[in-house]
Amino acid sequence: MTKRLALVVVLLAGAMALAQAKKAAPADPWVGNWKLDTTKSKFHNPGPKEETLTVSAANKDAVKYSMKGTDPAGAAYTEAYEGKPDGKAYPLTRNGQEVAKISYHRNTDHNSTGNATVVDGSTFTESVTLSSDGKTITVKQHHKAKDAEYDDLIVFTKS
């Protein structure tokens, strides 16, 4: 009986320690749903009518997000990305088709940079910043196409 009691005590202590460790781990401030703020965003070409960004991971081990939106012509679209912030390029898909490869590098807990090559041969770089209050994501992109270079500013607010 004493051995059983000792085993129960050890198991309970382990479960409590695990629960405390889970409580102590801070939530990833990037994770959640974000709405495109069309009034603060500035697009070179007409931007989406609306867009929702869902971030599942944005930490030192993984970057995973998806988007649902409506383009300027009124057509619905989805985008998805899953990779690591290791400087290697991973595919970005739009409506299930690969449209670009993006590599991300995590600079701080609140900033990452990315380099992308689009299937048409154009490229873009981006800086993605989470505000200190955790309520806004700002994406600054610089695009290089065959005939032009331009910048986009994309702002999302936590929903």
What does this structure look like?
The chain has 159 residues and is mainly β. Helices cover 14% and strands 54% of the residues. It has a single domain, classed as Calycin beta-barrel core domain (Lipocalin), CATH 2.40.128. A 10-stranded antiparallel β-barrel has the order 1-2-3-4-5-6-7-8-9-10. A hairpin with a 5-residue loop joins strand 3 (63-70) and strand 4. The protein is globular.
Layout of SSEs?
Layout lengths: L1 H23 L7 E5 L13 E9 L4 E8 L5 E8 L2 E9 L2 E12 L2 E8 L4 E8 L5 E9 L4 E10 L1
CATH architecture level-2 label: Beta Barrel
Oligomer: single chain
Broad shape: globular
CATH level-4 homologous superfamily:
Calycin beta-barrel core domain
Indicate the radius of gyration in whole angstroms. 21 Å
The tally of beta strands, per DSSP, is 10
Structural class: mainly beta
Secondary-structure element pattern, one letter each: HEEEEEEEEEE
Number of helical segments with 4 or more residues: 1
Q: What's the average pLDDT?
A: 89
Uncertain regions: pLDDT < 50 for 5+ in a row?
1-18
Strand content: over 45%
Largest sheet: 10 strands, antiparallel, barrel
CATH class: Mainly Beta
Please give the domain count. 1
Strand order of the largest sheet: 1-2-3-4-5-6-7-8-9-10
The CATH topology corresponds to: Lipocalin
